[in-house]
Design goal:
Length: 672
Amino acid sequence: MTFMAEFRDAFFEESAEHVAAVEQGLLALDSGAADSEQMNAIFRAAHSVKGLAATLGFPEIAAFTHDMESVLDRLRSGTLAVTPKLGQLLLRANDTLKALLAAAQAGQGSEVDTAEVTGELRAALGAPTTEAETVVAPQSTPAAGAPRTYAIRLLPKRQLFASGQDPMLIVRELTELGHDVSVVCDTTRLPAIDALDPDLCHLIWVVKVTTTASRDEIANVFLFAEDECEHSVRDVTDDPSRAGVAAHAPPLKTPGSDGKPVAAEAASIRVPTDKIDALVDLVGELVISQAMVNQIASDFDMGRLGELQEALASLDRSTRDLQERVMSVRMLPVATVFNRFPRLVRDVSNTLGKKVRLEMQGAETELDKGMIERIGDPLTHLVRNAIDHGLETPADRIAAGKGDTGTVTLRAAHEGGSVVIDVADDGRGLNTKRIREKAEANGLIRPDEVLSDDEINALIFAPGFSTAAQVSDLSGRGVGMDVVKRNVEGMSGSVTLTSTEGKGSRVRIRLPLTLAILDGLIVSVGGASYVLPLLSVVESLRPTPRDVRNILGSGEVLVLRGESLPFVRLHAVFGHDVAITEPSRGIIVIAETDGRRFGLLVDDVLGQQQVVIKNLEANYRKLDGVMGATILGDGRVSLICDVQELFRWTTTRREAAEQLLAAVSTSGEEFA
């Protein structure tokens, strides 16, 4: 990396923080909560981006930010009045600045069209336009209701399908905005057949449409997939040839567009100096402890055994403290995720015509950086869902005896060695009866199956499940809650839902503090060691022969204090021929996932210890029932069990047994 390239990386990182600060300040300005100091902070952030951009050779960013800064300067001096329209314009300008920075970082600076927003910013100042700008002005500010022709370029991210999105739904919505529609599919990103990965999206679409819809209405089409798709909108009303150029232009240079493997993007973390100071102190203590051990070992006799044990204990304490401090360096406050939601709530509530107040609690709660980056999308869907499905319209709320403004609450807290994030609303709650009817219609449950309200409500996490009467930009496609659950479980977390009809709902996400280290229970099966995540372990016991029963249709169950719990024989799951098969001679570990308990039959429990998780799938391949591997103190590799997948295995086995029982019953009737 060259000297200038290093500075540019720092510029993009700092600019992202400045843009976020501008957005937060503008949202406060829009709500009337901003004061003069906050206005100055917004101006300083924009000014910093402009100065850095000009210094490091990004003239387009500097020029655009200059126009934005001019409006902010007039606002802070009081010579320009704060209005909702101006606040909306500045938020759009900040979005454009964010797009300019992203494009410059990816080497696509010319792809962002700033003419429309620039013209509106200068119009807000009353500044005269140049002759060149006069040509653009009629395209940027068309008469209300006048049809315009747009070329809309849709560039899905390659991992789009993993989130359950279908780009053709977006293309269809764009074609329904107007008339004289043409759609061109750009296949330049499509790799050779032998390198084709069907799980990735390789295509780009360009939609040309003549419509009376505004740019904001076009942007709303992408609202549900804004994190999975990049798009650009060009007004080609007076120059139709530009649509053809846009349609057949070379594809955007995106990572991996040439079919080559994508290198991991370099990431950085800003660490407070007090954490660095603590690390330096601990390293000093570690060096002292190591020197003590070396000195005793060099002149050791049995009389110094006590000294050696004391020195090793000191070394162990220093190592554990150092481990905790190093892990704390990766910890970031969830505020880095929460801060994106005031803008999201504002935009979605305006789109739906609802009044919404967002409350955020526990934003200082720290979570591992890796999970901070992955939890954003699930939370985004949950917040949108709460506003769209959960909260009523102002008229409906008043009719129900509530205030016209609904509340969405984001709360984070540490509970029992894990982090809990709640997304709650005070809306209508879930219609349990309707969910059951839809689940029965989809074949998810039997009409005679007895389930509690919470169990019925949890069915909304089933793939493709949706009770929305209409499909909108925000919801109703049945591709949301199952993706949320899958993403959270991919982080070794869990999702639970509670709801009271007429009062609201709450979705609770429980996550481990870090993905790198976990507290584990070491168990022995067939001479091999396995690790069970300690957060999932409730208790362990040695059952008596009468505690284990074989129930037709449910398989083996353990009767524990009057409750029948299914259990899994780990030796059967992992294929051990030599193992304890009689439950009364082994140990059954009771684990819990998604509020349900089940047992795991093992030979013995060896103890508890912290383990470092190694990615097994990246280095070997995916194994059923395994979430990773670790290296124990004796150098042996031990697999870390995926408790949630093992529980699903018991459910699948029970369903298979029930189907077999039903088939046998039917055959018997036919035979009779």
